[in-house]
Amino acid sequence: MSDSRAHGTGSGGTTAVLLAAGAGTRLGLGPKALLTFHGRTLVEVLADVLLAGGCREVVVVLGADAARVRAATDLGRHRVIDNPHWASGMGSSFRAGIAAAAPEDHVLIALVDQPGLTTETVARLLTSHRPGRVTAAAYRDADGKLQRGHPLLLDAGLRTEAAETATGDAGARHFLRANPDLVYLVDCSDLSGGEDLDSADQLHLLDQRRF
Predict the structure, then answer these.
(1) pLDDT exceeds 50 at position 4
(2) Over the stretch 7-42, which tens digit does the pLDDT of each residue have?
(3) From the candidate CATH numbers 3.90.550.10, 3.40.50.300, 1.10.60.10, 3.40.50.2000, the one assigned to the domain spanning 12-191
């Protein structure tokens, strides 16, 4: 491992990248970004959570029905970009979001289908981050074992390498599997279950909000 990778190269803050480009095909209700969440849209609430949790800036990556999402939301506090290649999978949105972040910043990757995300979770990851590491939120399964989840914070010195491995529906997955020694898990089970909203039987997650 080179010195730059071991110690990180970032001297800036942390940019959050909110991946919100999917069409929500499995759920069947259109883009998850537009799901109603406490009187607003899910993408609006989560972008504000990321900013309030301590991120310097939030980059929202749109894709499916991007024009409709822009028209139906107020994301003026954030930087919104379109990924014209969103249909190729999450990997292209992951790469686009990292490329849009300030070069010196660490990058916090979050998913728009995690309504349980809280400002405390974001703040805990930021304060727990270790230089040269990937700091990931983790949640306990039924057996009490910590399982890696989202958000995850990529050190500035690792973001380029992580982006290069993102293909298809894989964001950081290939990079993390190849570099398990770099991953630092932060237990966030007391703040959220860390569930992704993927099916109709999980819509109850939209009725829960803990900050």
Answers:
(1) no
(2) 333 446 999 999 999 865 565 566 889 998 888 999
(3) 3.90.550.10
Altogether, the residues listed in the chain come to a count of 211
Could you tell me the CA-to-CA distances from 61 to 96, 177, 189 in Å, in that order?
Answer: 8, 24, 27
Minimal CA–CA distance to 5: which of 154, 106, 105, 132? Answer: 132
Task: Give residue 153's pLDDT band: very low, low, confident or very high (50, 70, 90).
Answer: very high
Burial label for 144, CB within 10 Å (0-12, 13-18, 19+), is exposed
Q: Which of 92, 108, 87 is nearest to 159 (CA)?
A: 108
Torsions phi, psi of 187, nearest 5?
Answer: -70, 120
How many other CB atoms are there within 10 angstroms of residue 162's CB atom? Answer: 26
